[in-house]
Amino acid sequence: MATQEAVVTRPMTVTVNGQARFAEVETRLLLVHFLRETLGLTGTHIGCDTTSCGACTVLLEGTPVKSCTVFAVQAEGRQITTVEGLMSNGALHPIQQGFHEEHALQCGFCTPGMMLTSVALLAENPSPTDEQIRWAISGNVCRCTGYQNIVKAVQHAAAKLREET
Amino acid sequence: MYPASFEYFAPSSLDEAVEVLERFGGDAKVLAGGQSLIPAMKLRVTAPRALVDINRIDGLDGLVERGGGLCIGALVRHKTCERSELLRGRYSVLGDAAPQISDPIVRNLGTVCGSLAHADPQGDWGAALLAIGADVVIRGPQGERTVALDDFLQGPFATALESSEVITKVQVRAPGARAGGTYLKLERKVGDFATAGVAVHVSLDNGSIARAGIAFTGVGPRNARAAEAEQALAGAEPTEEAIVAAAQLAAGAADPWDDHRGTVEYKRNVVRVFTERGLRTAVAAARGA
Asked: Which CATH class is domain A9-85?
């Protein structure tokens, strides 16, 4: 059956990982599809696609959001950080080092979202307790690790970041 | 999953927002946090022809104490409530509900007023705000009007909001000088909807109960008050016997259904236990207030 839906597009500018990006997008395009398909940044994963798992978590103005539950056009003029934006000058971010050192991933599917949520936590609270870490990542589902090593990885990164400052 | 196409508007004023809503005559939706609306659009449960994104409108994100109560603007996020010192003490029914809503990432975007407009019977804010008492302030083509929350919530996903109207804020009524409250929610995991939730608010006058507010989440077609239990407690001494009797009345007033979260009997019992516990906590807090 023919659809009566008209394609509605809109120009948008957004800063992703520090770089200004311009695109003409469909208004109904979800932020996660904009990142993965329009920009080719496939580090942001689509897990449940129902606002439940947190695999698609990115930072919007520094705040973790589920990019499957935000329209790309809502990010007009805003700053987005994805996992691709964590490295700087060829060096892993302390949270990436932490996940590596503490073996905080097995399949890796939840890892980008876990790390971005953790980065936002540490920006607010440089010395979280294990309990506070578990609370902060309670919207990010990991089906491999049992979370133990993820908590250790976040503590590893917290210690590293405290050393740096 | 891809939502149906829609026209997108990001007005910078409420007047402009209302104008767009009116122009689309019932076929436009307000986008605040989007944490219920966008999932519904992805499932094509709803397919509005236009979205009116109110996030660029200044002055809607205020959470302040005013006129003896609280004023919660249309863009106040769950996270802001979770962290606000204002929602402690006499407003604890609200402060206790906030961190139990969905998960931390959803709470970063989701809004109190959006939750009320969505009117999911599983929503937590409806119960918490009914217990303490609140009014919804609405802007439409004819100006502003205020509707008591109990009249605003009409049924599952149904409210008194007309198609050209937008909620601008919710006003929490004065909690009482000596008051306390709490929100108890049983959920299978973080992010799940309530198996059952009970919000309790109590204010005391000379040691007896001036007003008791008891309201439910997820055990009826809408967030609803346990009116009989509230009436039984009004003016009464807050004794253990009175609390147990009120909790029985509350359990009888709940209208749950059998599902994967539990049976009718089980959920009623959760309501009874939570009402007892909630009343004990609220009375103790009110005595210390």
From this structure: alpha beta
